[in-house]
Amino acid sequence: MATSCPSHTCGTDAEAAKREEAAEELRLKEQLRRIQHKLLVMSGKGGVGKSSVATYMAFGLSQKGYRVGLMDADLHGPSIPKMLGITGMFQVDDQKHLVPVQVNENLQVVSIQCLLEDPDSAVIWRGPIKHGVIRQFVSEVQWGNLDYLIIDCPPGTGDEPLSVAQIIPDVHAVIVTTPQEVALSDVRKSINFCRKAHLPILGLVENMSGLVCPHCGKSVPLFGTEGGRKTAERMNIPFLGSLPFEPRVVEAGDAGMPLEVGSDASGPFLESLNGLLSEVIDKCSPPLPEEKTEAMTSDVTKEVPRMEKDNFKVAIPLANGMLCNHFGHCERFAILTVQNGRIESREERTPPPHEPGVLPRWIAEQGVNLVIAGGMGQRAISLFQERGVQVLTGAPALDPETLVNSYLQGNLVTGANVCDH
Ligand SMILES: Nc1ncnc2c1ncn2[C@@H]1O[C@H](COP(=O)(O)OP(=O)(O)OP(=O)(O)O)[C@@H](O)[C@H]1O
Predict the structure, then answer these.
(1) How much distance in Å is there from the Cα of 106 to the middle of ligand 1?
(2) For the residues 210-232, what does the mean pLDDT come to?
(3) Is 294 exposed, middle or buried, given 0-12, 13-18 or 19+ CB atoms closer than 10 A?
(4) According to the annotation, is 45 in a ligand binding site?
């Protein structure tokens, strides 16, 4: 058995680190595969009610029967635990995974606040640490299967929304604003941020759009009218709806007891919230608005076809012991023999020099039935198909055993074929 080098200078440790990184990548993809819709709630400006909107979206969807996770990614100013009346610390399970706080049967919450021994202590972290924490909030938390993961980010276009966009390739943004021009100018920045970060926008929510007078029922435009809707039209993004200012929302937030969203929901805020939730559910029903670029879609996971027999051979192109993304230019191939649904043996073979059409023929001659690859040109795929060899593209750059075992267990997650030929 290989032992770790105490000097940390030889390849053993580097390889172990690489394997750990690859396993972590696989864990992240597997977690994301189990979450259907991921929504990042953001705002250009502070205090517009972004955390309230995130909380009510999550709480409301959970009350409608959806399985919802709410992730508080506002690491410096987490307010979700307060709004939901969550106190105390998180539990950790035997596998050292964080167990989210269960708010009701369908709603689970994760916030940095629940990791702080002193609730008033300040978190002083720079970007890379925050990126790591957000990544762990996705991959190391026992979310289980979710219909929606709602992520609350701090205001502005800083590290946190960028990290979320990088870690969760199929996340969609919900942008919250109030109707006055000073908030709307920041919203335009948020929209442009999303476009630059290739983060598709589900739509815009206008919060505190007016105060409904409890005496005469007329709406008093606290911050002007219709600014959100007009901005959405001008910037060509969907408008999801507006939520009025209602003093009960402040009281409920301070008391940690959100207003109940149900079919008998009463009051201007809850009535508008119901409309907003319907719009969100509608927009999330497949397919989500396609604003994605090629680069984004390359990370979208897809169904993996299964082999019909228990005994077969798998070929994987290699570079430095891991799957090589460029099929035609790999150094070697790992060929693994599967018998009775288990890896029986593994060998490595050097292919003949690269020439068009040579590799598919050579691989088929090795008795291979399945190729697991990153990117591959369409011509090579066709040549394999002609020889009865199945091809699976878009697999992650992991070691062959991890890939084949994941394939056998039915949890290999693949993205798009990223070949640029
Ligand atoms: N529609 C509403 N009606 C009444 N009060 C509201 C409404 N939306 C938000 N609030 C209140 O406004 C205050 C600020 O809201 P919230 O904390 O959600 O804003 P935020 O944009 O997340 O702030 P931050 O910039 O600190 O992250 C809270 O007291 C909240 O209860």
Answers:
(1) 24
(2) 75
(3) exposed
(4) yes
